[in-house]
C-alpha cells in the first residue's frame, strides 16, 4: 500500500493495459461467439470425437497412454512454477540487491524499494495464478482417468453412450481449458517482468503477448490443420 503513491501515471496506464489484455483475451477466447472458432473451441470437438472412439474400443491402453502424456505435461509445468515462485520469493527477500542491479540498467530501473516489491508482486501473482490452474487441471485429468476406467462399451446411439461421451469430453475440456489458462498466465507473467525495466515496457509487452496469443489461437497453421476436414 505504501508503494501506490509512488506510482506514476505511466505505471497506472500500463497496469490497466496489462489486466485489460489478460482479462479481455480470456473472455474473448472462452466466452465470445467469435472466440469459439479458435484453437481452444475447435479442440473441444475433437475431444468429443475422441470420447466416442474410446467407447467403441474394448482395449483402451492407447487412451490411457494419451491421458498419461497430458498429465505429464501438466505436472512438468506445475513443478516448474513452484521453482519460479520460490525464486521470486527469494528475490523479494533480496530486494535491496536487486534494486541496485535494476538501477544500473539504461531504462530507468525499478525505482525505490516499495516500487520494486510491488512490481515483483505482480510477477509473483501471475505465476501463483498459473500454479493453481495447473494443479486444478491435473486433478481434472485424474477425474478423466477415473471416467475412462469406468467407461462402458458401446456404439454411438446406444442408450447412455452419448451421455457418457459428453461426460468424458466435458472433463477433458475442463482440464485442457485450465491448462491453457495456466499457459496464458505464463505469457503474461513474462510480460509483467517488463515492469522491472520500465513502466511502458509492461504495457507494450502485454500488448505483444495479446498479439502472439491471438495469432497462435486464430491464425496458426495448427488451427488450419484442425479445421481441415477429410
Verbal overview:
This protein is mainly alpha-helical and 230 residues long. The protein has one domain. The protein contains eight helices and no strands. It is elongated.
Give a quick rundown of the structure.
The protein has 230 residues and is an all-alpha fold. Helices cover 78% and strands 0% of the residues.
Structural class, from secondary structure content?
A: mainly alpha
Total number of helical segments?
Answer: 8
What is the rounded Rg? 21 Å
Largest sheet: none
The amount of beta strand, in percent, is under 5%
Number of domains: 1
Number of E-type strands: 0
- Give the overall form: elongated
Distance between the termini: 58 Å
Average pLDDT confidence is: 89
Instruction: Name the helicity range.
Output: over 70%
Order of helices and strands: HHHHHHHH
Contiguous low-pLDDT stretches (5 residues minimum) are none
What order do the helices and strands come in, and which of them pair?
Elements (H helix, E strand, L loop, with lengths): L8 H23 L7 H18 L4 H33 L1 H9 L9 H37 L11 H32 L6 H20 L2 H7 L3
Helix pairs in contact: 1-7, 2-6, 2-8, 3-5, 5-6, 6-7
From the structure above, extract its key features.
230 residues; mainly alpha; 8 helices
Amino acid at each position: 500500500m505504501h508503494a501506490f503513491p509512488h506510482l506514476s501515471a505511466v505505471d497506472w496506464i500500463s497496469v490497466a493495459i496489462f489486466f485489460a489484455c489478460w482479462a479481455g483475451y480470456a473472455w474473448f477466447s472462452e466466452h465470445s461467439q467469435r472466440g469459439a472458432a479458435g484453437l481452444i473451441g475447435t479442440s473441444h470437438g475433437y475431444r468429443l470425437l475422441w470420447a466416442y472412439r474410446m467407447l467403441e474400443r474394448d482395449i483402451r491402453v492407447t487412451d490411457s497412454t494419451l491421458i498419461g502424456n497430458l498429465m505429464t505435461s501438466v505436472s512438468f509445468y506445475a513443478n516448474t512454477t513452484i521453482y519460479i515462485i520460490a525464486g521470486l520469493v527469494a528475490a523479494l527477500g533480496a530486494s535491496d540487491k536487486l534494486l541496485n542491479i535494476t538501477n544500473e540498467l539504461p531504462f530507468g530501473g525499478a525505482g525505490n524499494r516499495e516500487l520494486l516489491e510491488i512490481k515483483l508482486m505482480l510477477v509473483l501473482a501471475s505465476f501463483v495464478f498459473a500454479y493453481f490452474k495447473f494443479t486444478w487441471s491435473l486433478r481434472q485429468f485424474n477425474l478423466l482417468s477415473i471416467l475412462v476406467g469406468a467407461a462402458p462399451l458401446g456404439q454411438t446411439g446406444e442408450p447412455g453412450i452419448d451421455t457418457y461421451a459428453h461426460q468424458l469430453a466435458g472433463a477433458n475440456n475442463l482440464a485442457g481449458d485450465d491448462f491453457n489458462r495456466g499457459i496464458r498466465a505464463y505469457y503474461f507473467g513474462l510480460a509483467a517482468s517488463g515492469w522491472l525495466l520500465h513502466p511502458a515496457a509492461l504495457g507494450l509487452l502485454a500488448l505483444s503477448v495479446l498479439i502472439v496469443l491471438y495469432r497462435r489461437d486464430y491464425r496458426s497453421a495448427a488451427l488450419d490443420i484442425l479445421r481441415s476436414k477429410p
